[in-house]
């Protein structure tokens, strides 16, 4: 009787729940999950490989070579154009030849003597003439020479006196360039030649023998007047 009193009435009236089946179901679900993980294939990964496309190779194009092979309607021929360019270039070289020989001085006073203008003109004429001829090496050399002597030909450089001993050498270089492009050192070669006249010859008026004799007589009279 005492034992019955010690047992809770709920234990007698209600049967305690059986958790065995729930535990089995739980254990089964865990096992299925693990087996699913083992048997399921790995997720697919997509690898995108981009092939770097090579940019098209651009080959430098050669500059178009301009030859005035045919005279323009009413215009000068190629030879006439090149001769003109050379004469103008020769005049500027002649100017620089004199300025360098005088050590960039006017009345003994150092100055640039317009060198920047002369040198710029020489460079421009050389660049213009290059595409007109088949052998432009001399014009390339003149352009390089202009770039070399330019800093030595400024007003500041002349007044500094640093290049006084070098200026005569530059004068000879300008002289050599002038002879190379003109073919003569005669100043008359810097002007257009008459038809049939050889390059570099003097341009003198045509006079008769009678006129020459009159010129001689006048010259003699003038000399006698001076000596009296």
Could you explain the architecture of this structure?
The protein has 228 residues and is mainly α. The protein has a domain at 78-179. The protein has 9 helices and 2 strands. The chain has helices at residues 2-6, 9-13, 20-39, 78-101, 115-129, 137-149, 155-160, 167-182, 209-227; strands spanning 105-106, 109-110. Strands 1-2 form a two-stranded antiparallel ribbon. A hairpin with a 2-residue loop joins β1 (105-106) and β2. α4 (78-101) packs antiparallel against α5 (115-129), α4 packs antiparallel against α8 and α5 runs antiparallel to α6. The longest helix has 24 residues, at 78-101. The radius of gyration is 51 Å and the shape is elongated. The termini are far apart.
Structural class by sheet pairing and helices: mainly alpha
What's the total count of β strands? 2
**Major sheet characteristics:** 2 strands, antiparallel
Average pLDDT for all residues: 75
Helix content: 40-55%
Strand order of the largest sheet: 1-2
Beta fraction:
under 5%
Query: Could you say which overall geometry the principal axes of the C-alpha atoms support?
Result: elongated
Measured between the Cα atoms of the first and last residue, the distance is: 188 Å
From the alpha carbons, calculate the radius of gyration and give it in angstroms: 51 Å
Low-confidence stretches: 60-66, 196-205
Helix-strand string: HHHHEEHHHHH
**How many helices in DSSP terms?**
9
